[in-house]
């Protein structure tokens, strides 16, 4: 019954397309291109499906953010499912859901995302600790990217707080590195962990990669958020020149606000893939 | 257009019913009482509505956890809306959603929860920092309970890590207290913050209350999770003998697995309210 795992799908899509680009699907009704605006949620689904079709040759994964579908109201999840149906099954889908709850409830979220939506991976919150993440890891063929150093302006409010090591021996280090170290331990037990680290903070990204040489990194923040692509790619690559997904949403979705949106999205994805690959090679 | 705020509704419901009890709505298909089991999602809605009706005289708020509705699939949010329709508008509803994302995306979540679902309050994650919470606080009549010290076994994995103060002067304190202190600052600016602190850790709850004498506290963990009610109430009360909501889910929902489930739920709620009030008075 179980098909290929997230890691298998990702490896194959990434290798076939020579791509580390993950296309983020964050559609908003009032940002739809002019020809689709004011035409309701179905136009939003059409928009996403055209974006998927146009970017497919250049993407190693898709990452819908659930918030933008939930904002559409009770039909949001059905609309998301319609969008997901446009993504070929061999291309992995990461549900950007940033869920986190106590174990009993986290199991319900895992059911929703892996079984009901059929996604291949998910983003999760670290704050509740191991038993809030474990229910996602219990799906061996799926993967959970734990938030580590996020891409937003306030990321440092808590993530940069200096925490003492349990033994008191080692030097204090920022919370996000304590999270990275803990997730590395979970990875030894489960093998299906990853981390989220924003492109907007390449120094922190490099520190995470140094501590976690083999963990898959999901790296948002390039484009609308201002992250510098080359610095992020260099900071996040593993020793094989891969091991990361560069997630770009708005710079692809809204590359053109007029009738050429799909063409422009495909072209933006093609250029981003090329820029990523150039940074990999340099 | 805007009706009474969360704080107004809560105060009125709490005072009218002499209650700090918040009834958690965490329905699961395979835990439905025997007469409803195997009868699909509509039976789950009926179950929740009967629970609401039976517990209404004893509850100052309701707290549906979105995970259990999302686990039902794409129709989950519609089913949740049907459940919410059974709660009288003067009784406040806390969406237990534990959302947290970058500001732009957090705005979409706030739209979903406050505008689409019409809830009065929400639980949110602290990990992304201020700009991940601010979009919820921008709804002045709503309230955001920020996770501080959660009720689960792994709560301490990160929440108990000792963090240094920014100035280096003050003593190191656990992360959850650093979160409490920061939220207290946000409260000064916004006035619509609260904290989540589990009943399972009354010592930590007391430390939070000491640092934040006036913040509303949402306190889950009594009942199925083993939290001791009296200790939690004593630890969490503010100086006026209120300021907290004791959230109980499974011990009410599944008080009786047979045909008397609604009666048993009402009776469980009545007893819990009495036990809470006894602890308040003692």
Largest interface: A-B, 59 and 59 residues
Strand content of chain A: 15-25%
Cα-based radius of gyration of chain A, to the nearest Å? 18 Å
The multimeric state of the shown protein is: homodimer
| Overall shape of chain A | globular
End-to-end span of chain A in angstroms? 42 Å
What is the CATH first-level class name of chain A? Answer: Alpha Beta
Number of helices of chain A: 12
The CATH level-2 architecture of chain A is identified as Alpha-Beta Barrel
Q: Kindly identify the CATH topology of chain A.
A: TIM Barrel
- How helix-rich are the residues of chain A, as a percent range? 40-55%
What string gives the helices and strands of chain A in order? HEHEHHEHEHEHEEHEHEHEHH
What order do the strands of the largest sheet of chain A run in, or round the barrel if closed? 2-1-10-9-8-5-4-3
Name the CATH homologous superfamily of chain A.
Answer: Aldolase class I
Class based on secondary structure composition and strand pairing of chain A? alpha/beta
For the record, the count of structural domains of chain A works out to 1
Number of strands of chain A: 10
Main sheet characteristics of chain A: 8 strands, parallel
Q: pLDDT under 50 segments of chain A (min length 5)?
A: none
pLDDT averaged over residues of chain A: 95
EC number (chains A, B): 4.1.1.23
Catalytic activity (chains A, B): orotidine 5'-phosphate + H(+) = UMP + CO2
Pfam family, one (chains A, B): OMPdecase
Family (chains A, B): Belongs to the OMP decarboxylase family. Type 2 subfamily.
């Amino acid at each position: 019954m179980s098909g290929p795992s997230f890691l298998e799908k990702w490896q194959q899509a990434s290798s076939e397309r020579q791509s580390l680009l993950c296309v983020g699907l964050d559609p908003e009704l009032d940002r739809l291109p002019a020809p689709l605006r004011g035409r309701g949620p179905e136009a939003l689904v059409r928009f996403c499906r055209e974006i998927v079709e146009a970017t497919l040759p250049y993407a190693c994964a898709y990452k819908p953010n659930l918030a933008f579908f939930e904002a559409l109201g009770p039909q949001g999840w059905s609309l998301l499912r319609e969008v997901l149906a446009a993504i070929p099954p061999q291309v992995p889908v990461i549900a950007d859901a940033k869920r986190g709850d106590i174990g009993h409830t986290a199991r319900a979220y895992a059911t929703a995302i892996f079984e009901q939506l059929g996604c291949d991976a998910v983003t999760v919150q670290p704050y509740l600790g191991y038993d809030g993440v474990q229910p996602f890891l219990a799906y061996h063929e799926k993967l959970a990217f734990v938030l580590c150093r996020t891409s937003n302006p306030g990321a440092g409010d808590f993530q940069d707080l200096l925490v003492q090591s349990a033994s008191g021996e080692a030097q204090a280090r920022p919370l996000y590195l304590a999270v990275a170290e803990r997730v590395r331990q979970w990875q030894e037990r489960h093998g299906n962990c990853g981390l989220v680290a924003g492109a907007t903070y390449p120094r922190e990204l490099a520190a995470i990669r140094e501590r976690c040489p083999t963990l898959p990194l999901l790296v948002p923040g390039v484009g609308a958020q201002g992250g510098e692509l080359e610095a992020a790619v260099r900071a996040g690559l593993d020793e094989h020149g891969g091991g990361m997904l560069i997630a770009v949403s708005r710079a692809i979705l809204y590359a053109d606000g007029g009738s050429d949106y799909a063409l422009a999205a495909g072209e933006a994805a093609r250029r981003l893939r090329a820029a990523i690959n150039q940074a990999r090679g340099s």
